[in-house]
Specification:
This protein is an alpha/beta fold. It folds into three domains: 96 residues, 2-Layer Sandwich (Nucleotidyltransferase, domain 5); 94 residues; 115 residues, no CATH class. The protein is 54% helix and 11% strand. It has 13 helices and seven strands. Strand 4, helix 2 and strand 5 form a beta-alpha-beta unit. The protein is globular and about 80 Å long.
């Protein structure tokens, strides 16, 4: 069997495999169980293997590369145009096999085990933060049913909640008071978990030279730096910093035709978690502008006056993305902008 290109439709237990030879003739078409997948490819000569980006894709790509194959991961939206008929496992595997052979196809870099471990920490921390927000909102809504209103913001709410729960004269029933106290204790536990995750991330950043370089940028902290280093497996896949900004969804959405250029809002493609970290970081920079006279601060103040606060935050995030690419791809150190010439 001389398969030169193979597509795998990944699943939990049963995988569909579709392979063609150098003349695009189908030479492999079968269904393989999870335990037999590596055994199936161990008996094949080295070939190009494509699979959709999904849960487990990076694991299988690493395993298949260990067998000598050229395993590549494709975003699902790039596979859809090559599916010729109805959606099923066999047609998906055939479409993946066709897509992986396109010369202009873009692939997802295969992440190492260490990179996925760091991203695991970020995903868990993000989930705990969301859970804490949900608990605070639940307490806020339940207290409103008794005419008790918490102040806006997480810190003011957590500060006033103990006094409110201990106030015996506010008319809160005993059952509700006990249940809401349990929720408050759960929030305190979540705070401790988040603090532990933050300390773990800071320790990872201290031991990563790439993260240390990124943290010199305005608006980039330990959380953003470690997430970026772990997510950008190969900076060389991007030809320029603008390509990285486009991958993060920080460039304008384009709908141009007939020689007329139309640019809209940002595309919001790519990893929304990384985009959120970058934009939140730039908001912190804008909040501390003051009367700084360096070139970046002067540019930001002018941009805020001309285009508004939120657009300035996104513009700085896109600028940071281009600088991040230069720091990671070229191994350079960040050079802050000098003071503006008056």
């Amino acid at each position: 069997m001389n398969a030169t290109r193979v597509g795998i439709d990944l699943a939990k237990n049963v995988f569909s495999v579709h392979g063609v030879d150098a003349h695009d003739k189908v030479v492999l078409k079968k269904t393989v169980t999870r335990g037999k997948l590596l055994e199936c490819f161990a008996n094949l000569p080295p070939c190009v293997i494509g699979m959709e980006a999904c849960s487990g894709a990076h694991h299988w790509a690493r395993q298949l590369r260990g067998l000598g194959h050229d395993a590549r991961i494709i975003a699902p939206r790039f596979v859809i145009p090559y599916r010729k008929s109805g959606k099923n496992d066999g047609n998906d595997a055939e479409a993946i096999c066709e897509a992986v052979g396109r010369p202009a196809m873009r692939f997802v870099p295969v992440k190492s085990v260490e990179q996925q471990a760091v991203l695991c920490l970020h995903r868990i921390r993000s989930g705990v933060v969301a859970e804490r927000t949900a608990q605070i909102n639940q307490i806020r809504g339940l207290l409103a049913e008794f005419g008790l209103i918490l102040p806006k913001g997480r810190y003011p709410a957590q500060h006033h909640l103990p006094d409110l729960l201990e106030d015996a004269g506010n008319g809160l029933p005993g059952l509700a008071r006990r249940l809401l106290t349990d929720l408050y204790q759960r929030i305190l536990q979540l705070n401790q978990h988040i603090l532990a995750y933050d300390r773990e991330i800071e320790a990872l950043a201290r031991h990563s030279s790439s993260a240390q370089r990124l943290m010199r940028l305005p608006g980039i902290g330990a959380v953003s730096a470690t997430a970026l280093v772990a997510s950008i497996a190969d900076p060389g896949q991007f030809g320029s910093g603008r390509q990285l900004a486009a991958w993060l969804g920080l460039v304008p959405r384009q709908y141009s035709t007939g020689g007329k250029t139309r640019l809209g809002r940002i595309t919001k493609q790519g990893d929304k978690y990384l985009r959120m970290l970058l934009i939140h970081g730039t908001r912190a920079v804008l909040a501390t502008l003051g009367d700084k006279q360096d070139r970046l601060s002067c540019w930001l103040r002018e941009l805020i006056a001309r285009r508004g606060y939120k657009r300035a935050a996104v513009a700085l995030a896109a600028k940071n993305a281009r600088v991040i690419w230069a720091l990671l791809a070229r191994g350079e150190d960040y050079r802050p902008s000098p003071a503006a010439v008056v």
